[in-house]
Design goal:
The protein is an alpha/beta fold. The chain contains 18 helices and nine strands.
Length: 386
């Protein structure tokens, strides 16, 4: 039996990489084309275990990761488990690295809260998740997963796979758990260039499509996950950042036109606006406090973060206007990141996957890492983990 199944359009290169690294428990399947949904279905057919773990090629697991990820399956009503995720941190992070880390911190903050309140989450991460094999090997699941279409016949074969899996689990009564133990925290990479904006656009298009489907087509979330529906799904329709601040500022300013509104109000208009500004700053920062305690040097990026919060409102509107697009605006999966993941598994590997690719004549794949991710830190991470 093969412990790891890799589905790739370039199996010969992957086989050579695995052979060079001494990896003998990898099943390598040739995909007709690069399409994550079809590759997942192709791999599912060869799974013999009761639990299937899907993982992308740009993540790094700590050594006890699987033991902790699988623990929640002791509850037979749990259908899937997701890990906590943090960003692979370079030695000298730039503003895009920080914005990516901030995105992951906020996302984790939200799903950790809702999953503990009513068991709901907005989306089970497709970067790595564990699912009962019986669920994904169901013929009905595979048929609809491969051929999902949104309103007006928009095909979703190139996007939204993790959202579909999440909705399927919810609609069929399965619980989804998030394993928050430190041992189940994996690292990943995001864009470290302005291409990060493209990733944000793609993510929010997915959010629009999936949340609209959950709320108005499936509707099961209203009964099973009322708090998650309010806190995460309904918030999709909130006005862009800055709208409420402007409205509240207007009313606060005019509240003092006839003097102090009540003894409960601050004594002066200036004091009221100072307190209001402190409250807004705190509300936008509170989810990142653990990050700043760990990396206080990132406090220098706070002005950029506040500016991006308001800019993200424009991204939200643009994503809605282009909701029919399902292309990847951010990074693309590549053989090099797959090689680094293999190197992470191989204990004592003497050569990085990138050097093997170079010797195999795939120099272009080495250079094309997520449109700007630093290959050297990925290889260093793989070597140190191995």
């Amino acid at each position: 039996a093969k412990a790891v199944i890799i589905v790739t359009p370039k199996p010969d290169v992957v086989r050579k990489v695995c052979a060079e690294l001494g990896l003998h428990h990898f099943g390598i399947l040739k995909a007709p084309k690069a399409n994550k949904r079809l590759q997942m279905i192709q791999g599912i057919e060869h799974v013999k275990t009761s639990i299937t773990v899907f993982t992308d090629d740009d993540v790094f697991w700590p050594k006890p990761f699987l033991l902790y990820l699988l623990a929640p399956f002791e509850d037979p009503s749990v259908g899937a488990v997701g890990p906590t995720i943090t960003l692979e941190r370079p030695e000298k992070p730039n503003v895009w690295d920080f914005l990516g880390a901030a995105y992951l911190e906020r996302w984790q903050f939200g799903i950790a809260a809702t999953s503990n309140i009513d068991g709901g989450i907005q989306c089970l991460s497709g970067r790595t998740c564990a699912i009962r094999s019986a669920i994904v090997q169901d013929e009905a699941f595979k048929a609809t997963f491969a051929n999902e279409k949104w309103f007006f016949g928009i095909p979703l074969s190139k996007a939204d796979d993790d959202n579909y899996v999440t909705r399927w689990l919810v609609n069929h009564g399965w619980k989804i758990k998030i394993q928050s133990a430190p041992e189940a925290k994996m690292t990943t990479v995001l864009e470290s260039t302005p291409a990060f904006i493209g990733q944000c656009i793609r993510w929010y298009r997915t959010t629009w499509r999936s949340n609209i489907t959950s709320m108005f087509v499936d509707k099961r979330i209203w009964r099973d996950q009322p708090w998650c529906s309010y806190a995460l799904h309904l918030s999709t329709f909130n006005p862009p950042s800055g709208t409420f601040e402007c409205i509240l500022s207007y009313f606060l300013f005019h509240a003092y036109d006839q003097g102090r509104p009540s003894p409960m109000f601050p004594p002066t208009r200036m004091t009221a606006f100072a307190l209001f500004a402190i409250w807004m700053v705190f509300a936008k920062t509170v989810k990142l406090l653990p990050h700043f305690f760990q990396y206080p040097s990132d406090l220098k990026f706070l002005p950029a973060m506040y500016a991006f919060c308001y800019f993200h409102g424009l991204i939200k509107i643009y994503a809605l206007l282009t909701i029919h697009k399902t292309t990847w605006n951010g990074g693309r999966m590549s053989l090099t990141t797959l090689t680094d993941a293999a190197s992470n598994v191989a204990a004592g590997a003497r050569e990085s996957g990138s050097s093997i690719l170079r010797k195999s004549g795939y120099e272009a794949d080495v250079k094309r890492i997520h449109s700007g991710t630093d290959l050297r830190r990925l290889v260093m991470k793989s070597d140190s983990s191995g």
